[in-house]
């Protein structure tokens, strides 16, 4: 197989698009070496034993094994194998790092094996898309026209394009995504915030459910001196939206969380009177769902110099308060080099990833161990000073499809 066309940890050319994982046009053949009288393995081992052998492999080896022959490809893609392997595999959340702004190519990072694998996404998304992930599926929405919406499994390369509403989303937009594990159905929420008059902002929430395959009637509300931003999350049936104060009162909170119950909405939803205050001036705030716990990552900003941050902090929502969990140690924070308020952060399970847009350095925080560490160095090389990178965290699962 040609270099760059396999899903491996070998080198990768950024100007080429590899076949990636489970490419739909990959040609699989059973090869028998008649000259040396090699006998196909399925003539020796029954199917159930082959399944057990493949299932005992690490996930990245299972993915490679599916490309060996037709028989193994059928085993790996069978519903029986998918369900069995989901219970057997204990995987840490992976990270996909975009290495190009023009094509969906990049590297997967497996924290268990501390290895990077070159690959590409199945749909034509870019590193600056709105991205939200849940339980192995990832949702993408384009940043410019905001009329392209995809849901995909990055490992199996299965994806679906969703039809958006007729009107474009103007102003500030945030994307949230949640998968219901028992039913494998998912919910997409798009939060729009548009300036209407003086200090008034119109907030709208649009909900899509995969089991009904329809967009529900949007919730609309007008807020005074508060607007939504670019970040929201669905956690335990509640949509959380990070909002920003646009007034001039210095004693007011600069940031806060508003809530919207997806199952039993009430008049108190998205109300400033019931907001959850953010404990300090935050830049580049990101909301994460870690095992149905709301976690916020943000740069600790300076009010006098809003483009500079003095640290990165993690908070967990407990009741109606955000409680500080950890801060990036100063030595690790310095490892990013010169950093302003622009960095990416995402997480799942018990891991949080933090990455500067201007570098490939990836910082990992283990919520269980309360430990910070660097990932293994990504093999991609920065080719010019203004080259940007980004990425997202997801749970590696084979059995989920869009």
UniProtKB/TrEMBL annotation:
It holds the Pfam family F-box. The keyword DNA-binding does not apply. Residues 45-85 form the F-box domain. Pathway: Protein modification; protein ubiquitination. Keywords: Ubl conjugation pathway. SMART domains: FBOX. SUPFAM superfamilies: F-box domain (SSF81383), Galactose oxidase, central domain (SSF50965). This is F-box domain-containing protein. It comes from Ilex paraguariensis (yerba mate).
